[in-house]
Specification:
Blueprint (H helix, E strand, L loop, with lengths): L12 E4 L2 E4 L5 H43 L9
Length: 79
């Protein structure tokens, strides 16, 4: 029976063009910059996900409104 070995987690690397810069070899200031970039990327991904939800939600409300004003049994304005 083969023994399973845990894969070593890969060390983070900043890639620019063909060059690779290991983060653990960077200065503390550059490591902080790298961390900020990753954090901002995560926030962008969350914002894009939220935007999709918002657009789909708005589209559903628009569809409901159109149905409500165009169908005979739709809601009427009581003002």
């Amino acid at each position: 029976m083969k023994r399973k070995t845990k894969a070593q987690p890969s060390k983070p690397v900043f890639e620019m063009g063909d060059e690779k810069y290991p983060v653990d070899e960077m200065t503390a200031e550059n490591q902080a910059r790298f961390s900020h970039i990753n954090n901002i990327n995560r926030k962008i991904e969350v914002a894009q996900f939220n935007l999709i939800e918002l657009v789909r939600g708005r589209d559903a409300f628009v569809a409901d409104l159109i149905k409500g004003v165009t169908e005979p049994n739709g809601e009427t304005d009581t003002n």
